[in-house]
Amino acid sequence: MPRVLDVQYHLQNLNVDVTVPSTPIFEAITTDISRFESAVTRTEMMKEAAMESSAVKSFPTIRSGSYADIGTRPSMDDEHIRIDDLSSYLGSFFKWPSAFYAVFDGHGGPDAATYIKRNAMRLFFEDAELPQTSDIDAVFLEALVDSHRKAFLVADIALADERSVSSACGTTALTALVIGRHLLVANAGDCRAVLCRKGVAVDMSQDHRPSYLPERKRVEELGGYIEDEYLNGYLSVTRALGDWDLKLPLGAASPLIAEPDVRQLLLTEEDEFLIIGCDGIWDVISSQEAVSFVRRGLRRHDDPDLCARELVREASRLHATDNLTAVIICFSSPSPVESCPPQRRRFRCCGLSEEARNRLRSLLEGN
């Protein structure tokens, strides 16, 4: 399988310039998964193992495309990652076929988004603490979810210590990992992931905005406030990495958090593609509209790069006012467009008058 990587993202040239936080921080944010293990019976584990073995063998043939545009903004603060063959970059880290995608929407400048993109492999994979197993079983999946949550929190802490990133700078983040036939999406902020299942949009993330009632309630319970749909009258999201001038000291509960929502599912033959994009897209296009638009494009030309470009241009046409970034991840080839059968030429029958018939008869008889 060919390797695809965003042209600006050279893994071989990553510069790891932030020291990973010390062990106590890891211990503070590590969750106990023993409760999950105890809830899984031996029979369920056997069924899970059999299912996962089959899932690995049927890893989808992934193709992806992406496109980004500055839009009407004076600077480009979006970043994204696109890797169709993750195992070829990480060596033996994963024993199964895998792929990784991410979008980061910076605010207060591009520095926070750029830093997270540059260090993404270390944060999400190289420093991950995962059990050694030959199968993608329930225990491994729970550990993987926990590892992704931890990566968001560690990235947030790293931004607090990174001198090149202002405390007034931050970024939303959404990652999508495909391992075997498992899809895992983690999100903090208002980027969005939408799955196309037989033409129907399935949201794989929740927009963390002050208008979302559970987020508003959480913010207000922690002493924050919402003013004109902005957190503390300043930020349009309630979850983000960085923005340390809005967060309480480390260890204190803060209205603005970096904790991601994580969702996972087992991909089936009905799942056609995934769209991940920054909020500039979703400000003007609904999830279902985006799925229908991309599906039509894939059926026309089967080119995910072109589909991403078309989706961004459609958002621009609809007067989007933000940076625009879209990534399209295809899990299957589109169904061919049903072509209309050639229509037979129809002739309209005309009635002839008696005089016309007589003239025609005389002509044919040579008179």
UniProtKB/TrEMBL annotation:
Annotated SMART domains: PP2Cc (SM00332)
Cofactor requirement: Mn(2+); Mg(2+)
Enzyme Commission number(s) from the entry: 3.1.3.16
Gene3D superfamilies according to UniProt: PPM-type phosphatase domain (3.60.40.10)
Listed GO CC annotations: cytoplasm; nucleus
Keyword terms of this UniProt record: Hydrolase, Magnesium, Manganese, Metal-binding, Protein phosphatase
PROSITE patterns reported in the protein's UniProt record: PPM_1, PPM_2
SUPFAM superfamilies, per database record: PP2C-like
Coiled-coil region: none
Protein's recorded name: protein-serine/threonine phosphatase
Species, as recorded: Jatropha curcas (Barbados nut)
